[in-house]
């Protein structure tokens, strides 16, 4: 996947933003970077990246992404901790998407944990509309 602008909404190019994470050339330094890279992975259909960045305690055995969902935007609403020196972090976001011709959104407060493997998604509290 190459794009002029990264789907995560950072304003940077994909190859300078989430692309290196997806290729395994770099690891996210913060919980927000991981969350943004996971959103971009949903956009690109990269189920293997999503599973690899999911904490083993909560990771499903497999992940089938819905081809009928088109992700259209990400807005980071708040972050708590999750910096390069933290072990835990929380990111609140809203992701917009189109499903069956209807515009919808996902509002989630996601929890992340950092250990020897880097930042990993643990779980989230989500509201769909």
Task: Describe the protein in words.
- By secondary structure, the protein is an alpha+beta fold.
- The protein has a single domain (about 15-129), classed as Nuclear Transport Factor 2, Chain: A, CATH 3.10.450.50.
- About 20% of the residues lie in helices and about 40% in strands.
- The protein has 3 helices and 4 strands.
- The chain has helices at about 20-25, 30-45, 45-50, and strands at about 70-80, 90-100, 100-115, 120-129.
- A 4-stranded antiparallel β-sheet has the order 1-2-3-4, covered by helices on one side.
- A hairpin with a 6-residue loop joins β1 (about 70-80) and β2 (about 90-100).
Short description:
This is UPF0225 protein CFH99_11260. By secondary structure, this protein is α+β, with helices and mostly antiparallel strands. The protein contains three helices and four strands.
CATH topology: Nuclear Transport Factor 2, Chain: A
Order of helices and strands: HHHEEEE
Please write the CATH class name.
Alpha Beta
Oligomer: single chain
Terminal Cα separation, in Å?
A: 29 Å
Going across the biggest sheet, name each strand in turn: 1-2-3-4
Can you tell me the CATH architecture?
Roll
Which class of secondary structure composition applies to the elements?
alpha+beta
The helix content, as a percent range, equals 10-25%
Mean pLDDT, to the nearest integer, reads 95
Taken as a percent bin, the fraction of beta residues is 35-45%
What count of helical segments does DSSP give? 3
- Spans of at least 5 consecutive residues with low confidence: none
Query: In the residues, how many domains can be counted?
Result: 1
Approximate shape: globular
- Report the biggest beta sheet as strand number plus sense, adding barrel if it closes: 4 strands, antiparallel
